[in-house]
């Protein structure tokens, strides 16, 4: 594996209740890039993302085969709490802990993983994460406010802050803007582009325009199979597979 690769997926297949939903997927995600996984509804995008941080382990009806390496280590050889430290996740709907304060939402992972040594360091890290998530200016005078009092877009930025507070290597984002309006979507897209300086980002989207706007690489998944993968500019201007061309033109 190249030292420039952050995530490598080899021959990944997933079956759920005996039905194959992902077949023989091979991908390499370079460090400090935004890597989009796009495809129509039900094509297996979320299933792939969930396999990377082993969310399927708790489901006996789901069988995952193949190998996934993060930063050179096989995820199956990492205890779940170690994997959670290096792989953060942001979900489709903002899911902060609603009755916890803004500060505590960001601090919780740092406290659980004992990643900071003092209250001062905790405060600094929370501020750092909120700034990185473009939320600090809006909440800095009100860190004790409960998370449910924030708007949907602010809640999603809080979830981004919560995920990046641990300084993971990889940030998985499952359609992070699909529940948001155009203005919040734009803010979060700008934020994601900034975040790639510090993290490797894998983002699932069913919106080809979003992949075109923000990603460096795109994998197009259709019916559980990888149809095409490559630099975003090539996939959108010179797709090799006619199915990719149809999809990016909105004809699938
Ligand atoms: N928990 C589950 N139990 C049963 N089947 C599931 C489960 N999760 C996913 N599937 C099936 O796996 C297939 C792929 O689903 P997945 O959610 O990965 O697709 P997707 O591309 O992310 O779709 P969407 O854009 O609609 O979120 C679908 O056929 C879906 O019905």
UniProtKB/TrEMBL annotation:
InterPro entries referenced in this protein's UniProt entry, alphabetically: AAA+_ATPase, ABC_transporter-like_ATP-bd, ABC_transporter-like_CS, P-loop_NTPase, PstB-like
One Gene Ontology cellular component: membrane
Pfam families recorded: ABC_tran
Gene Ontology biological process terms, A to Z: phosphate ion transmembrane transport
PROSITE patterns: ABC_TRANSPORTER_1, ABC_TRANSPORTER_2
Keyword flag Methyltransferase: no
Alphabetic keyword roster: ATP-binding, Nucleotide-binding, Transport
Keyword ATP-binding: yes
SUPFAM superfamilies: P-loop containing nucleoside triphosphate hydrolases
Superkingdom to which the source organism belongs: Archaea
Chain ranges of the ABC transporter domain: 7-248
GO molecular function: ATP binding; ATP hydrolysis activity; phosphate transmembrane transporter activity
Name by which UniProt lists this protein: Phosphate ABC transporter, ATPase subunit
Source species: Ignicoccus hospitalis (strain KIN4/I / DSM 18386 / JCM 14125)
